[in-house]
Amino acid sequence: MTHGEDSTGNYLLAVGTKKGLWLGTSRDRANYTFTGPHFLMHEIPSIGIDTRGGRTRILAGLRSEHWGPTVARSDDLGDTWQEPENGAITFPEDTGASLERVWQIQPDTAERAGVVWAGCEPISVWKSTDGGEHFELNRGLWDHPHRTEWGAGYGGAAAHTVLPSPSDPNTVHVAISAGGVYRSSDAGQSWEARNQGISAYFMPNPLPEFGQCVHKVARDPNNPNIMYAQNHHGVYRTDDNADTWLSIAEGLPADFGFTMLTHPRRSGTAWVIPVKADGERIPPDARLAVHRTDDAGQSWRALTDGLVQPEYNVVLRDAATVDSAEPAGLFFGTRGGTVYASADEGEHFTEVLSNLPDVLCVRAAVLEA
Amino acid sequence: MFCVSERPYLKPEGETVGEVNVLVPRLLQSLVGGKAELRLEVGEGAGVGELLDVIGSQFPVFGRRLREETGELRRYVNIYLDGEDVRRMSGLQTQATAGQELMVVQSIAGG
């Protein structure tokens, strides 16, 4: 399937949907050549693109309604796929659990070659040291005493965000729906809830230690103690490694939403895509808009150029991403199956795919020439 | 028509007394070497779960498509033994005997 002119190039865009995976390459992040659907009739809730070590590996979390979840990988941009015979992510027998869905696949930093993290349903965090071919369950989080009190968001109960600290290999943050933010400072042996200031308005105590439904967290590229969170109502920033969170929702048309993105190099820049409210899950006024802050959440600016209006579909938590190019590319897909790309940090968008199944995950990378 | 495989599959324990035919759904045939039908040699009192263990030992990915890590059948996978849903009998403990047919079918699910 080709959209636009022949544009095979060094920008890769991966779009996971409810019924398959599409892979596109482009020279300009506006005109793409796509292949797909790969894995027709499988939902693709998670994609990891690992460009470390001189090769591009695509890891895809698949899930068939009939045949269950698995992780497949491709080292040739989707021409062929491999799957470990016994599965990349399988629960140890003593847990009595079975994998439901892989929600996030997150390659670690360039310095930690081979390390890939995964967040899964049931709520669990996994670590691979062989490039995502096999993952090991993090027992510290699995055995956490809060586990019995964690709840489920509408989409399921999962650890959906894993953020290894680039500066400290012992520090990792995860976000759980519905459990909130947890931090490990000892390489995953133990985990502490870190939700002070984040609202859980749907609970009897609206500011509990844990139980928040944090939808997505993203880390500042230069200061690992600064993170941004899109909550189930509420947009926050922490400046102290998640010890406390401050509201930065003022200036947004709504404080609900699923996405949170930070710039690959520039501190203070983040993007959200607001949704009107928990009970009205459409863009505010049915006007799709990306909102960007360049001052760490003190102010926000709506970016709409190129977005088709009206829009009644939302953008899910992993259906938006940035790449590492200069200027940064911004990409997202809606539950209505429209995928947009911006080569200029959101100033202008191009519709690059349309009428797909619900978009669940979007990832982008810059390939070596 | 189903093509009939060679008979590489053997019940691991006990004396074998005959074969059970396993019909593989089209979507999963690539995971068992392209076969539409597998033949398993079985002994007296072989449980359906044991037969799946044998198949899964030779075709692990196929085995994972049918069952969760706990060994339970996936929710939308049905297995019929001579036309009877094993869930309506004794589940994976249902005993299969030589000459019977085991059919793997995906149930209606999704949208």
Architecture overview:
The complex is a heterodimer of chains A (369) and B (111). Chain A is an all-beta fold and 369 residues long. In chain A, 1% of the residues lie in helices and 38% in strands. The longest helix of chain A is centred in the middle third of the chain and has 4 residues, at 139-142. Chain B is globular. In chain B, the strands form 2 sheets. A 6-stranded mixed sheet of chain B has the order 1-3-2-8-5-6, with helices on one face. In chain B, strands 4-7 form a two-stranded antiparallel sheet. In chain B, helix 1 crosses helix 2. The model of chain B is unreliable at 1-11 (pLDDT under 50). Chain B has helices at 48-58, 60-66, and strands at 9-10, 16-23, 37-43, 46-47, 77-81, 84-85, 95-96, 101-106. Chain B has 111 residues and is α/β, with parallel strands linked by helices. The A-B interface holds A 41, 64-68, 70, 83, 85-87, 90-91, 93, 96-99 and B 27-28, 60-61, 64-66, 68-70, 72, 74, 76-77, 106-107, 109-110. Chain A: It comes from Arthrobacter cryoconiti.
Sequence-ordered SSE layout with sheet pairings:
The complex is a heterodimer of chains A (369) and B (111).
Chain A: E1 11-17, E2 20-26, E3 32-38, E4 43-50, E5 57-64, E6 68-74, E7 101-107, E8 116-121, E9 124-128, E10 136-137, H1 139-142, E11 158-164, E12 172-177, E13 180-184, E14 192-193, E15 214-219, E16 227-231, E17 235-238, E18 246-247, E19 256-257, E20 261-262, E21 270-272, E22 274-275, E23 290-293, E24 301-303, E25 320-322, E26 330-333, E27 339-342, E28 350-353, E29 359-366
Antiparallel strand pairs in A: 1-2, 1-29, 2-3, 4-5, 5-6, 7-8, 8-9, 9-10, 11-12, 12-13, 13-14, 15-16, 16-17, 17-18, 19-22, 20-21, 21-23, 23-24, 25-26, 26-27, 27-28
Chain B: E1 9-10, E2 16-23, E3 37-43, E4 46-47, H1 48-58, H2 60-66, E5 77-81, E6 84-85, E7 95-96, E8 101-106
Helix pairs in contact in B: 1-2
